[in-house]
Amino acid sequence: MPSGQTQPDAPIFALASGAGRAAIAVMRLTGTGCGEILRHLCGTLPAPRRATLHGLRHASGDAPPILLDRALVLWFPGPNSYTGEDSAELHLHAGPAVITAVADALVALGARPAEPGEFTRRAFMNGRLDLIEAEGIADLIDAETEAQRRQALEQADGTLSRLYDDWATRLRTTLAHQEALIDFPDEDLPPEIEQALLDELRALTREMRAHLDDGGRGERLRRGLLFAIVGVPNVGKSSLLNTLAERDVAIVSPRAGTTRDAIEVRVVLGDVPVTLIDTAGLRETEDEIEAEGVRRALFHVKQADCVIGMFDGDTPPADLPANVILVRNKIDLVPTTKAPHGAIAISVHDGTGLAQLTEILADRARALTAAQAGPPLTRARHRAAIEESASHLAAALDMHWPEMRGEEMRLAMRALGRLTGAIGVEDLLDTVFGQFCIGK
């Protein structure tokens, strides 16, 4: 339960619109007593789900009521609201003094400021959405690109939940058949029942394994990709970073070893968020600071989804992984009709080949996050639960004792239940809803 919360349905409020100068600020309110608070502020309870203009008034102590603002007010009686509780929205003028005055009035009337994600947490607790849909809403709020928006909206709309609910329903039916075989061993049940049961377990296991075998595409798109730019000193790594970022992020100098730490910048390539990392030049050095930069560069090579290996001669960097894109820079100084070793020939100085390189990088980003058949996994928590469920189903198939097989099937059901929030998720709730902004 969030800190400071005394009642699970106590009235809470939060500013749902963003901070900063704006014309309108939206204050959300939900919980038991929300209607009485609204009646006090407006003088009457507005018609449900209709935007109406009201003067918001509040009396402090024995003083007569004062006008706080003229606002559009929406009243959503529960359970037909986002949280499932009585809820309201106040569309205020967005001046800081107005927002503060209305917030003070709400506190005086018994409401309290909401914790991060508390509105969505209440929606979950009241059965308005499951845990996976709630995570989809969090991802939708954080979406930077159109591809992320589509993936998050699909999850928030329940596409993943429907897949997992279908698995749970089928497993529940199969478990019921298994229990019948355990409870009525002397009833001469048709052997086809056990064979159908085993076939369904095999089918579920195959489907879960296929779902897991997605190359992490959904998780990559959700968090964004990591592209590391590596090479020996002075091959143009920092210049390429600045060019792709379209601003001066890294210091460019003819002096070798200028970049000693990893410099990161967020860009969008192929509608996918990508963090570009400019690394220290790879070389042997006795300078302990530069040596630490080289060590960090090698670390980023191991972590990267894609490595951009830069060089300016005929020999590309050595010992690079299979996910490398080789880039031969400075062809304006050493003209060539074809880059050696299958590398892309560019000149950061005069722009030659940069459009081609940018499109190749965008293609790589799209390929790493391309959607496959069925909704993608988006979080490590989902992957762990499905792996656990699939492992228990595989163990059930190996069991000859009906009671042991049934126990493995129950454990698989529990893993799926934790995934959607049906059972055993209390320890996860603070972590999941703590990712939300205030007001959601």
UniProtKB/TrEMBL annotation:
Domain spans labelled TrmE-type G: 224-366
SUPFAM superfamilies for the chain: P-loop containing nucleoside triphosphate hydrolases, TrmE connector domain
Residues that hold (6S)-5-formyl-5,6,7,8-tetrahydrofolate according to the record: 28, 89, 128, 440
UniProt-listed GO biological process terms: tRNA methylation; tRNA wobble uridine modification
Cofactor note: Binds 1 potassium ion per subunit.
Protein's cellular compartments: Cytoplasm
Binding site for Mg(2+): 238, 259
Enzyme Commission code(s) on record: 3.6.-.-
Gene3D superfamilies (alphabetical): P-loop containing nucleotide triphosphate hydrolases (3.40.50.300), Probable tRNA modification gtpase trme, domain 1 (3.30.1360.120), tRNA modification GTPase MnmE domain 2 (1.20.120.430)
Domain of life from the UniProt record: Bacteria
Assigned GO CC terms: cytoplasm
Pfam family, one: MnmE_helical
Keywords: Cytoplasm, GTP-binding, Hydrolase, Magnesium, Metal-binding, Nucleotide-binding, Potassium, tRNA processing
GO molecular function: GTP binding; GTPase activity; metal ion binding
Binding annotation for GTP: 234-239, 253-259, 278-281
Quaternary structure and interacting proteins, as annotated: Homodimer. Heterotetramer of two MnmE and two MnmG subunits.
Family designation: Belongs to the TRAFAC class TrmE-Era-EngA-EngB-Septin-like GTPase superfamily. TrmE GTPase family.
Name of the featured protein: tRNA modification GTPase MnmE
Lineage of the organism: Bacteria, Pseudomonadati, Pseudomonadota, Alphaproteobacteria, Acetobacterales
Gene it is expressed from: mnmE
